[in-house]
Design brief:
Its cofactor is pyridoxal 5'-phosphate. The protein is of the alpha/beta class and 337 residues long. It has 11 helices and 13 strands.
Length: 337
C-alpha cells in the first residue's frame, strides 16, 4: 500500500472486478451506512450569491453543545488538520498511534519532528514538553474509546498543545473533551461531520477551541470555503433530530452481529473491542492482501491496515454496514474457511 493510502477506493475495486460500484460490498470504508433524511430540493438553491454560514455555525455548535464562536469550519477534516498544523507552527508532534494517517502526513509536510507512541503497548510514556500531542478517540483503525482524563491532565502539566480527534465519537456514548476548553487554552478538538452523517462527498470539518484560538485561526482562513450545497446539505442533516439516536443504535447492533461473525472464522486470531463503526482484526496464517484476494469472488472489499504505524500485513479493518452486508460477508467466510 501507499504510505498514506486510505480505504474506500471502491471505484478502482469495481473496475478491477469488471462490475458496477453498486455491486460491491464496501467493508473498507468507515462512512456511516445509514443516511439522515434530507428534506431539501437542491434545484431550488440559489447559487448565484456568495454563501453565508451563520446558520450552519449555529446548528453545528448546538449539535456539539458549544458556542458558535468556539468553532471554525473547514473543507473537510483533512483540510482542518493541515490548516491547524500550519497555523500552530510548532516544532514537535507526538501522535498516539496507530492513528489517522493524515496526522503523520501533516507532521512531515510542515517540518515537525515526529514521535509516534504505540498506544497498544503503553499510552503513559513520557511526552516532550511543549509538543503538539494528537490523540484520536475513538481511535482508528481499532475503534477503542479511551478515558483520557489522566492523559489530558499530564499533557497540561507538560505545557503541550492538545489535538483530540473525535470524528467517531458520535457512534458511541463516550465523553467529549470539550469540557476542557474553558480549563486549558491550548486545546483543539476535531469533529469530522462526514463520518457519522454519511457525507464524505460533503466536505465539512470542524475545529472546536476557545474563542481566542478560533479567532486567531479564522483570520488566516478564506472568506468562502464551503459551497451552498455543503452548507445546506449538512444543515438539513442536522435537522433530522431522530437520526443520531437511530443511527447509533443500529450501528451498535450491527457491530455486535459483525463481531459474532468474525468470532466464528478460523482465519481470525484476535478481534479488537470497538466503540466505532468498524472492527480491527489480526489475521491468523494469512495476510490482509491474501484475505482480500479470497473475498474478491464475493465482491467484498476490506481495509488492509499494513500502512498504519505499529501494524503489519496481518491486520485488517472491517466496517460495520447493513445486516444484508453482514449476511453476505458471513456466507463468504463460511465458504472460505
Amino acid at each position: 500500500m501507499n504510505t498514506f493510502e486510505h480505504g474506500g477506493q471502491v471505484e478502482a475495486f469495481a473496475k478491477e472486478l469488471e462490475c458496477e460500484v453498486k455491486d460491491i460490498i464496501d467493508l473498507s470504508s468507515n462512512i456511516n451506512f445509514i443516511k439522515p433524511n434530507i428534506n431539501l430540493d437542491f434545484n431550488s438553491l440559489d447559487i448565484s450569491a456568495y454563501p453565508t454560514y451563520d446558520s450552519l455555525y449555529e446548528k453545528i455548535a448546538l449539535n456539539y453543545s458549544v458556542k458558535a464562536s468556539q468553532i471554525e469550519l473547514f473543507n473537510g477534516g483533512s483540510s482542518a488538520i493541515f490548516a491547524l498544523f500550519k497555523h500552530l507552527n510548532l516544532t514537535h508532534c507526538t501522535v498516539y498511534s496507530p492513528a489517522y494517517l493524515e496526522y503523520k502526513k501533516a507532521s512531515i509536510n510542515f517540518g515537525y519532528e515526529l514521535r509516534t507512541i504505540n498506544r497498544f503497548e503503553n499510552i503513559f510514556l513520557p511526552v516532550k514538553e511543549g509538543s503538539l500531542v494528537v490523540f484520536v478517540n475513538p481511535s482508528t483503525p481499532d475503534g477503542t474509546y479511551y478515558d483520557i482524563d489522566k492523559l489530558i491532565e499530564y499533557w497540561i502539566k507538560r505545557n503541550c498543545t492538545i489535538l483530540i480527534d473525535e470524528s467517531f465519537l458520535d457512534f458511541c456514548d463516550g465523553k467529549s473533551a470539550t469540557k476542557y476548553i474553558k480549563k486549558y487554552d491550548k486545546l483543539y478538538i476535531l469533529k469530522s461531520m462526514t463520518k457519522f452523517y454519511s457525507s464524505a462527498g460533503i466536505r465539512v470539518g470542524t475545529i472546536v477551541s476557545n474563542e481566542q484560538n478560533i479567532d486567531s485561526l479564522r483570520r488566516f482562513e478564506p472568506m468562502w470555503k464551503l459551497s451552498q450545497f455543503d452548507s445546506n446539505y449538512l444543515q438539513a442533516a442536522l435537522e433530522d433530530y431522530t437520526f443520531k439516536r437511530i443511527a447509533k443504535a443500529i450501528n451498535v447492533k450491527n457491530r455486535i452481529q459483525l463481531e459474532k461473525i468474525l468470532q466464528s472464522c478460523n482465519l481470525i486470531e484476535h478481534i479488537y473491542q470497538s466503540s466505532a463503526n468498524y472492527v480491527l482484526v489480526k489475521l491468523k496464517n494469512i495476510t490482509a492482501k491474501q484475505f482480500q484476494q479470497k473475498l474478491k469472488p464475493f465482491k467484498i472489499m476490506i481495509r488492509d491496515c499494513s500502512n498504519f504505524d505499529f501494524l503489519d500485513g496481518t491486520y485488517a479493518r472491517i466496517a460495520v454496514k447493513s445486516s444484508h452486508s453482514n449476511e453476505v460477508f458471513k456466507e463468504a467466510l463460511e465458504k472460505i474457511c
